[in-house]
Amino acid sequence: MKSEEDLDNLFKKSMDDPANHRAFNEDDWDAFEQMLDAGKKRRGIVYWLPRASAIAAMLLLALGWWFFIKPAKVIDDNNTQAGVKPTITKPQTKQGANDDATKQPLKDTVANKQSVGDNLAVIPEKDTNWNKHSAKNLAAAKSKKDTIWNTQKTGDNLAADKRKQKKQLVGQQPSAPFASGPGSSVVGNDNLAKTKRDTATLNNAARIAGINSIDKRNGNLSNALANMVPSLDITMAHTSPDFKSQIDIPPAAVNTDKPAKKITKQGFGYRPQLAITALASSDVNGTSSFQGKMGSNYGALLSLGLTKKLTITSGVVYSSKPYNTSFANYNTAYVFKHEPSDVTADCKMLDIPINIGYQVFGNFRNKISVGTGFSSYIMLHEKYTYNYADGNNPAWPQTYTVPNSKGYYLSILNLNATYERKINSKFGLSVQPYMKVPLSGVGYSDLKLQSTGVAVGVTYNINAFRKP
Amino acid sequence: MGEEELHQLINGCVKQDRKCQKMLYKAFYGFSMGICLRYAGNRDEAAEVMNQGFMKVFTHIDRFDTTRPFKAWLGRIMMNVSIDYYRANLKMAYTDDLEKAEGMTEGDLTDNNLNYEDLLAMIQQLPQAYRTVFNLFAIDGYSHEEIGEMLNISPGTSKSNLHKARHKLKQMILKAEETANKTNYNRGMDFNPIVAYNGIDVRSTFLNNGIRG
Description:
The complex is a heterodimer. By secondary structure, chain A is α+β, with helices and mostly antiparallel strands. Chain A contains ten helices and nine strands.
């Protein structure tokens, strides 16, 4: 037994002697470093999965919301089209109808309107009546200036309807800027066929739209209309600013309530960490597609770190957004006699973002985070230049500068990813690819203006709690 | 390394600072390698196990209680990793019959001529099951009950393996001494070309004759 203990001690003594320790071998460290890196990557993938899915879910929600809003507008457009449709189908029945119409005394108009209102759902009948009315009006055009004037106004209302459906749906009480007979100023598409009075208005409005279409489509009536159309145009051109001011108010009200809820959801944590970022960015802007026009943005942001991972950011960014859009995307109360093919816009605005960022990766020097939030645009300058496909005519409007631009609150969804590299404990550089997705139209023309670009910034940590 | 310096290094490692990690690795390389070498069959295996050990160290260093001795914690991790390695290779672990070891001559240990490298080489030549029990019992000071729990074997098996390990080691020592003597006596003689080899290789060559694995 003694020899066993001796044996154990012999080995123990030798093994425990620090003098016998091996010298450091760089190869072993290299192998270990590889293990460290590989381990990090493997771990990274595992931790990335839930984070990535969280981000994906967030994006889906945001996009889903965005698309959810869209269908509402599409439905509106359909309504508008339904209202306008009769003007297209009209020319076929027009000729026969004219005879009837001319036989009827002018005073019957109101009564007719009401009877049409009863049968509003029955399209053919409605068509016929409309034709009668338009014909009547045409006939009366020469002698009864007042009637024309009134119907012009109603026509304006309808034109405004076409462009500004959404706003009116919000429930804005249709005001009556012009008196044009019983109920004629009531917005036509609101509560279709609800009351006789309303439908009569629609009828009245559609009748004037009919006049327009007659002008464009039917040469037979051109004599009667030739005198009338210029006066129509002039009247509309004069009245369009009224409609703008009348309908431009609601979008802000429409858009503010929904996103506001989201913002209040943001919790407030502890250990706030403040940072100021000065940024400059270049982006491309457009509506349905980016037209390759580069905009520039300069601004200052203040970031508040709620937790180690969550940061809310707000600030002011001056944006210059030039873009090109097809005229189809351009919404205006003004009715173009000759429609431009596309519109070039030059907008200067203040972008006030409220974003929340989540750090998905970070070591002591590098940080990657993804963020989302909302931006409010305060328009400073809006100028639209109209481009016509078939040359230029001095009579056609060339440019329009919006006299009193407005703010569009929380109407833009921000999506971004940020890579930040610390230079020292106070300063850091950041690169941020971003996308601005429109939730509702902005600007005078109610455009869904989207932007994408890359911002670079310098960040100054006011109270860095993390050591460099 | 001073206590304060060590704590700074540990703090650096908590933040996953690569420089601090390397410094800590370098500082405890010899100590850790010493442990892994005697549990492992060869140097490469030892280095692999040690790196796994350091991996655990750096992964869990934030849980380390700085009021306790770091070296003991590190040593424990190295030992545990070695045992894990043993478990993972359990199928390959060689077990010898106890009977076979019985009746072997027990000579007196004259030792003293044997240095660390010699003794390490002997331990490494033990079958893994023997080596692990011998390390845990003779060098790390665990009881057979504890070893049984650690290795998931009975205390009896632990005792048996220890006995066999000791027996083999004794044999190796005796042979080594014998060889050393022979080598000395025959230095320069034509009939023993082995003198050209270095000490470890000589012993490996000779001792392998009587040992499987």
